[in-house]
Amino acid sequence: MKIAIVSGHSEGPSKLNAFDNALYEAEIGDVNLIKVSSMLESNTKVEELPKLKAGAMVNCVLSEVTSDIKGEKIIACVAVAIGDELGCVVENSGINKDPEEIKEEAVEMVKYMMNKRNVKIKELIIEETHHTVENIGSAIASVIYIKDDIIA
């Protein structure tokens, strides 16, 4: 299994447009995202995000937060733990919290999931982005499941 880990943040004239702009900044704005739960196959490989086919149906784990309150600090984060037998992904987000706290919470959750399954973590990756809202802002972090049929 191959995955890519991306993030983005942006503003827009509406909550939907801010979210769409954050997706576009993360280079996943031209595809259809299908939210899945948090499991990875054994020995998953993390790669750079390839160019995706416009309109492709793309599986992902998505953390997102959008706000229209000026000055709010919004944070989106994903944590990925990969082991020999399987891997787990956790999403976390927050408003007006320390980004380090959001990341630490995500790490603790993904470590718990792996421990519950008695799988040793070989690789741990955290992706976080944050944004201070000017008018209407959105922040996203995502794990994209890469399959050959979605690559342009």
In short:
The protein is α+β, with helices and mostly antiparallel strands. Helix content is 19%, strand content 45%.
Overall, the morphology is flat
Q: Main β-sheet, in a few words?
A: 5 strands, mixed
Instruction: Tell me the Rg in angstroms.
Output: 15 Å
Classified in CATH, the superfamily is: Pyruvoyl-Dependent Histidine Decarboxylase, subunit B
* Count of distinct structural domains: 1
Order of the strands making up the biggest sheet: 2-5-9-1-4
Strand portion: 35-45%
Average of pLDDT: 96
What level of helicity do the residues show?
10-25%
The SSE string, one letter per element, is EHEEEEEEHEE
List unreliable stretches of 5+ residues: none
In CATH, the architecture is 3-Layer(bba) Sandwich
SSE class: alpha+beta
Number of helices: 2
Which properties best describe this structure?
Pyruvoyl-Dependent Histidine Decarboxylase, Chain B; flat; 9 strands; five-stranded mixed beta sheet; four-stranded antiparallel beta sheet; alpha+beta; 2 helices; 152 residues; 19% helix
Blueprint (SSEs and pairs):
Blueprint (H helix, E strand, L loop, with lengths): L1 E10 L3 H11 L6 E4 L3 E2 L4 E2 L10 E11 L5 E10 L4 E9 L3 H18 L6 E10 L4 E10 L6
Parallel strand pairs: 1-4, 2-5
Antiparallel strand pairs: 1-9, 3-7, 5-9, 6-7, 6-8
Question: Explain this structure to me?
Answer:
The strands form two sheets. Strands 2-5-9-1-4 form a five-stranded mixed β-sheet. Strands 3-7-6-8 form a four-stranded antiparallel β-sheet. The two termini are about 20 Å apart. It is built from two helices and nine strands. The chain has a single domain, classed as Pyruvoyl-Dependent Histidine Decarboxylase, Chain B (3-Layer(bba) Sandwich), CATH 3.50.20. The protein has about 150 residues and is α+β, with helices and mostly antiparallel strands. The model has no long low-confidence stretch (mean pLDDT about 95). A hairpin with a 4-residue loop joins strand 6 and strand 7. The radius of gyration is 15 Å and the shape is flat.
